[in-house]
Amino acid sequence: MMKQNKSNRVAVRSKLTAVSSRPVNPGTIHSFTGLDHAMALHSVHVIFYYKEKLFSYFDLDPFRVCLSETLSLYPPVTGRIVRREVDGEWEVKCNDAGVRVVKATVATTLDEWLATADGAEERLLTAWDDMPHGDSSSWSPYRIQVRTPIRPALSLSF
């Protein structure tokens, strides 16, 4: 097999939004907790790898339906992080904007990926987008990225 340039093995194919199956009450706001404030400079990037024997085929549409039902149970996930004008503290302003779902492909097998990918390349598999400076009202802090095919496998990151 011809050796590929590692920087182009991950390709984003589409960005979609999964929304709650029930609208959120207008004006719903959740203040950050002490733990939220303590974690402000930290983030967690999780990647789950699944071999083909668990998923022979992955269809994104049923996943989005299930995700929409789940989002209706926890409205803060569909919100946007904004600063309060009064004191500058962060809060989640709930809305119906949804959670970003990114679909990507990876041009290698799972075994080859696990043996050769470095930290910088693995970061391409995480569903991450830096928070913009200034107006953050359109930035979704919660993302899910689905990658197929890491033949023979599927990976999800949150």
Automatic annotation (TrEMBL):
Name used for this protein in its record = Putative shikimate O-hydroxycinnamoyltransferase
**According to the UniProt record, what class of enzyme is this?**
transferase
What Gene3D superfamilies would the database entry show? Chloramphenicol acetyltransferase-like domain (3.30.559.10)
Q: Which InterPro entries does this one have? A: CAT-like_dom_sf
The EC number on file is: 2.3.1.133
Q: Which UniProt keywords apply?
A: Acyltransferase, Transferase
Q: Name one GO molecular function term.
A: shikimate O-hydroxycinnamoyltransferase activity
